[in-house]
Write a structure and sequence with these properties.
The structure holds 2 protein chains of 2 kinds. Chain A is mainly alpha-helical. Chain A has a domain at about 45-190: Nitrile hydratase alpha /Thiocyanate hydrolase gamma (Nitrile Hydratase, Chain A, Alpha-Beta Complex), CATH 3.90.330. In chain A, about 40% of the residues lie in helices and about 10% in strands. A two-stranded parallel sheet of chain A has the order 1-4. Chain A has a two-stranded parallel sheet with strand order 2-3. In chain A, helix 3 (about 50-60) packs across helix 4 (about 60-70), helix 3 (about 50-60) packs across helix 10 (about 180-185) and helix 4 crosses helix 5 (about 70-80). Chain B is an all-alpha fold. Chain B has a domain at about 30-100: Cyclin A, domain 1. Chain B is about 55% helix and about 0% strand. Chain B has 5 helices and no strands. Chain B has helices at about 30-40, 50-55, 60-65, 70-80, 90-100. The longest helix of chain B is centred in the middle third of the chain and has 15 residues, at about 30-40. The mean pLDDT of chain B is about 90. The chains are: A mainly alpha, B mainly alpha. At the A-B interface, helix 1, helix 2, helix 7 and helix 8 of A face helix 1, helix 2, helix 4 and helix 5 of B.
Chain lengths: ~220, ~100
């Protein structure tokens, strides 16, 4: 167990991180400016657009899909996505009979290179506790209807493995280009808490997938 | 070891409450926490398993009542103190100084 601390940290986390940064900088233990570009990349460039490209490729290229399901890390790297929190990837495929859902019950493991940094709800106690015990109720809250004849598979990350869902290709998208298909793919669909709308009639969700479909 | 972090199957923790149009970071301090974390990692001060374990050692009440990046803060402080990279007294002095508007 951790040694008891004698000083209570301040309640304001902004003050707390500034204090730590200042101390570590004085001791020359860190150089936050040096990682600023990396953080910027996580904020602006690495995100669910990457995963969407992987999904679209798998939809249009059966050989790629096969490689993706057999060796996700390698197949994802073919599109240039790799690195921290994506070292050991597994892609699980949704079908008319199987719906996959991802969670990390113990912490917040998430495939950064393809989905970016995780949303708050994914890291918070309600989702982590409930996804494994009542996945259908959780899916229902997200507005996902899964029939009783469909098997729900919940994948709980280990310390090493990171999962991504390969959603079903929506009907009515037969003539679309790979780029157009990627635009249909949302973050939530690649976590398994959304189904993808048909490409034609409905307004297409943004690939960022940040829209919650949960009825309030 | 088990602990409060082992949340799978626990009941009574409420609805999921996803946020619409969620930003990557909710405040500048979260972004800074991420930057410091990556920088500390790059310095080889501890590994990811030690980091996760430091979060798992939080008191259950603190664990459930604080946010993800506050867990990170706790783990960074804990490990850097335990490994002797910084002293708790030095950190407390910084808290006091910054709390009074110093730098």
């Amino acid at each position: 167990m951790a040694k008891h601390r004698h000083s209570e940290p301040p309640s304001d986390p902004a003050l707390r991180i500034k204090a730590l940064e200042s101390l570590l900088t004085e001791k020359k233990l860190i150089d936050p400016a040096a990682v600023d570009a990396l953080v910027d990349t996580f904020e602006k460039r690495i995100g669910p657009r990457n995963g969407a490209k992987v999904v679209a490729r798998a939809w249009v290229d059966p050989a790629y899909r096969k490689r993706l399901l057999a060796d996700a890390t390698g197949a994802i790297a073919e599109l240039g996505f790799s690195g921290m929190q994506g070292e050991d990837m597994v892609v699980v495929e949704n079908t008319p009979k199987v719906h996959n859902l991802l969670v990390c019950t113990l912490c917040s493991c998430y495939p950064w290179p393809v989905l970016g940094l995780p949303p708050v709800w994914y890291k918070a106690a309600p989702y982590r506790s409930r996804a494994v015990i009542e996945p259908r109720a959780v899916l229902d809250e997200f507005g996902v209807k899964v029939g009783p004849d469909v098997e729900v598979r919940v994948w709980d990350s280990t310390a090493e493995l990171r999962y991504m869902v390969l959603p079903e290709r929506p009907k009515g998208t037969e003539g679309m280009s790979e780029g157009e298909l990627a635009d249909l793919v949302t973050r939530d669909a690649m976590i398994g808490v959304a189904k993808l709308a048909s490409g034609k009639k409905k307004k297409t969700p943004k690939a960022g997938g940040l829209k919650s479909r949960r009825p309030r | 070891m088990n602990g409060v972090h082992d949340l799978g199957g626990m009941q009574g923790l409420g609805p999921v409450n996803p946020e619409t149009d969620e930003p990557v970071f909710h405040a500048p301090w979260e972004r800074l926490a991420f930057a410091v974390m990556i920088s500390v990692f790059a310095g080889g001060n501890y590994n990811v398993d030690e980091f996760r374990h430091a979060i798992e050692r939080m008191s259950p009440a603190d664990y459930l009542s604080t946010s993800y990046y506050e867990h990170w803060l706790h783990a960074m402080e804990t490990l850097l103190i335990e490994k002797g990279a910084i002293k708790e007294s030095e950190l407390a002095a910084k808290w006091a100084k910054l709390g009074k508007g110093g730098a």
